[in-house]
């Protein structure tokens, strides 16, 4: 009895709940964080390079695949365009078509990410990570042979249901970190995204440029390049990533009961974090509130981010190259903020910085929506980039402090799933508002509604307080 009391007393606590220390020495913990970082960079280079290729891909399938799924989806895009009053031009049809495919991809992530996270709690992070990466590689193989649009969509579906490596990376960082350095790990994940979204589209732009001079299945080269990166990533993880969740800390099963399985796929259950057990009521309430703030923030953010393409083209006549430079500007600021500021935050400061990021995003939307010159717009984009660099890493750090060791994957999986649902819905709603009532009202509404997650987050009492 006395021995048990001494062991419990030796454990650090949050709000009276004992928290296990990571089994990894600090230098090994740091090493695993950088393994996760480099793996994500490689993965995101392959993932983002398709973005500049989408117009060329859709043009190819439009000329060579007159029937089947392409025609069905094209009719849906035309119906949506007519409903909201968007211009009938090849450029906007391609943007809306790409948005539809992106929403489908995000919705698939919403469905599978909690299941992948829960599976890693039971079987370990490393085997599930490798399994998801094999699925991603398989999606690139299918893309390389996608002679028609249906096969291309199948490739995107395989990629969507396999894209659980981001939530697994978050769980790994949580496994190996302490409250003192966890924010640094989450910032590294953010930096990996910034680098991936900076360099990946540049690679894709190169392939898109060369595609203009090619006939036939021009996308085979880019697909094989993405496959090569995926294989390199698998080999890197196989040799460098160690298991971070010991067997004695794992969950006994993954949704062994029907209700437990339902909790991992039901939207309402995900918002309630019903699949997370053995936590006190105050922690469960905090998780639900942080999850809802994250969903609402990303719903508004992703929607207005998507309409930036419309606004800059209509107001400033930006072409694809100028828009690429604009997103490069945003990415540079994000990388600098995450590398020089977010990863150096002291533990307990995450909520304050997240609040600051959301607060800054409100005037950013107003400035962008009201901008009459490119310089004025870029001032708003700089504020937008700061919010992009701070809010999500800080909210992720906050949510990672909840749940027992054998449910960290479930917690982060549900959290990422809510973000994926927001990214699936946000662009559709924002595009509807944008083309229905105009650009300035759309951005003013978005900025005003951002007060809701700001006030909700301010009222949440987290582990830090």
Task: Write up this protein.
By secondary structure, the chain is mainly α. Strands 1-2 form a two-stranded antiparallel ribbon. The longest helix is centred in the middle third of the chain and has 36 residues. The radius of gyration is 22 Å and the shape is globular. The N terminus is likely disordered.
Mean pLDDT: 86
As an assembly, this protein is single chain
Q: Give the termini distance in whole angstroms.
A: 32 Å
Calculate Rg over CA atoms: 22 Å
Question: Which regions contain 5 or more consecutive residues with pLDDT less than 50?
Answer: 1-22
- The structure class reads mainly alpha
Helix content: over 70%
- Main β-sheet, in a few words? 2 strands, antiparallel
Order of helices and strands: HEEHHHHHHHHHHHHHHHHHH
Strand order of the largest sheet: 1-2
Count of DSSP-assigned helices:
19
What brief labels describe this structure?
mainly alpha; 465 residues; two-stranded antiparallel sheet; disordered N terminus; 77% helix; 2 strands; 19 helices; globular
SSE map:
Layout: H1 2-10, E1 13-14, E2 17-18, H2 26-48, H3 54-64, H4 69-84, H5 90-123, H6 125-144, H7 149-162, H8 165-176, H9 182-211, H10 220-240, H11 258-263, H12 267-272, H13 281-316, H14 320-340, H15 350-370, H16 374-399, H17 408-437, H18 439-449, H19 451-459
How would you summarize what this structure contains?
The chain has 465 residues and is mainly α. 77% of the residues lie in helices and 1% in strands.
